[in-house]
Amino acid sequence: MKKIFLVLFSIVFLFACDNDFEHENNEPTSGVLVQVSVIDALLQGIYDGYFPIGDLKEYGNYGIGTFNGLDGEMIVFNDTVFQVVASGDVKRPLDDVLTPFAAVTMMHADTTFMLSATSFEEIKLNFDSYFPTPNLFYAVKIKGDFKYLKTRSVPKQTKPYPPLVEVTANQPEFEFENESGDIIGLYCPEYAKGINVTGLHLHFLNSSRTGGGHILEFSLKQGSMEIGYLMDYRLILPEGGDFYGGDFTVDRTDDLEEAEN
Ligand SMILES: [Zn+2]
After folding, report:
1. pLDDT tens digits for 186-197?
2. Domain region containing 53
3. Labelling 179: which of 5, 50, 105, 120 has CA 20 to 30 A away?
4. Residues within 5 Å of ion ligand 1 by Cβ?
5. In terms of C-beta density within 10 A (0-12 exposed, 13-18 middle, 19 or more buried), how is residue 96 classed?
6. Both 1 and 77 in a single domain?
7. pLDDT, tens digit, 9 for 90 and up, residues 145-178
8. How far, in Å, are 13, 105, 132 from residue 69 at the CA level?
9. CATH number reported for the structural domain that contains residue 222 in this entry
């Protein structure tokens, strides 16, 4: 009898937790990661945009990606799409501009941490103190005052497109000192290899919206980090084009490491 009661209690408890969880996340698109193409397409030089950024904003107000022909780094922040081009300038492209690769979500903070002096390396080392498991997807937002940041962008390519590692070998890099701004990023688990960038992938936008890019390193003075758990994943793939002839049989892990870090 005792045993039955215990089992019953556990079931009720589980349901109670489940309901609480659903209640906290009842925004229809909150917690959903919506992605255009896959990282292994980008790594092999499939840079033709096919998805309008205006439509991308319907799926998320927060995210990262790139543009048609690999024309700079994308930051989607507060419903605005920013484009950090190879010169370092920040543009606000029109809705009909196409993306070949991007991932967005409706930003929703499940946890918030106040951060004192830390760095990209330290956050990666202390991953467990911020994230409950390495096996989910997360939206990551860090707002703060930075002592130092190093970013990069990528120059627009023309056909025939070279693979991403060849482009990033000559990437323009930018340094920021004593700059305030926002880090907009995603974390993808190891099993997402080939689909998206595994680990933490962060882009930066300064508070005057005049500079940013794909983060190579940063050192933070103080700030806050919001983490949104993403447990629902949608891929929107191209209908035709270079993607259909792409070679997805190759393990591009080393290329990814070289191109992104
Ligand atoms: Zn990036």
Report:
1. 999 999 999 999
2. 31-260
3. 105
4. 214
5. exposed
6. no
7. 999 999 999 999 999 999 999 999 999 999 999 9
8. 52, 23, 37
9. 3.30.1330.80
